[in-house]
Amino acid sequence: MILYGDYHTHTKYSRHGHGKGTILENASVALNKGLKQIAITDHGFNHLYYGVRRRDMPEVKDEILNAREVTGVDILLGVESNLISQKGDIDIKESDFEYLDILLMGNHTLVKMCSFDDTMKMMVANTFGSPYAPSKERLSRNTTAFLRALDKYPIDIITHLNYGCPTDTLAVARLAKEKGTLIELNGKRINFTDRELEIMAEEGVKFIVDSDAHSPARVGECNNAMNIIFRLGLPISQVVNIDKLPKFSAKRG
Q: What is the pLDDT of residues 48-77, one digit of tens each?
């Protein structure tokens, strides 16, 4: 199994030291590890502490063009957007797509939500509620928000599903399959049971393996995900960046 690309990496544009390196450093590590493609996907605009700033996007794009030229690695520009409402809103505007080659979405804390009610029922409830035994109401609310986001936006990848925001995993994965959205197998954390992964695979859900690197040295480090694929015998044909390169642009074409 050869990893061709890593589509969830952070840089200094995930502010306040959350991301540790430069775009060129991420690309240089990718080159040394034999990756053909990476994506720069810093935290979404509504993250109150780590989020990339919209005004920095032209600079990010210029740095990507330079790093491509220096390293020869194909680099996509993306963002790891945030779920910001129970209605499935995320922190992306139509004008943002001018810059984006790829769109990721996940749940995070310290995010500016759409309303006080969303803050209390989504961010606060998930931050302080049990990740292992959520109430039926919270599970339903979270799941509905993810499903609505998938309906509203051309999301390429759902990142670390269930991390900090438990959902009906299979309901989200089934709609993701229908929408052409990939379920991430995160290099740091996977919040599914083995049986959920097996059912997803049986139903033809497509996966992507990513590092979620916050420092250049971690780019391409996906052993956690790769070991689970090997252990469960998940079909390599359903993992879009092993032994091949995925395509992301068609949904916005």
A: 999 999 999 999 999 999 999 999 999 999
Residue 58 structure tokens = 């032209």
In contact, 226 and 3? CB cutoff 8 Å: yes
**pLDDT tens-digit map of 193-250:** 999 999 999 999 999 999 999 999 999 999 999 999 999 999 999 999 999 999 886 4
CB 241 within 8 A of CB 74: no
pTM over 0.90: yes
By the 10 Å C-beta count (0-12 exposed, 13-18 middle, 19+ buried), 107 is classed as: buried
Give the torsion through C-alpha atoms of 217, 223, 229, 233, to 10 deg.
140
> How far is the CA of 98 from the CAs of 27, 41, 54, 95, 147, in angstroms?
22, 15, 12, 6, 25
CA-CA distances (angstroms) from residue 202 to 87, 227, 235?
Answer: 30, 19, 9
Task: Note whether 199 and 242 are within 8 A (CB).
Answer: no
5-9 and 37-43 as β-strands: parallel, antiparallel, unpaired?
parallel
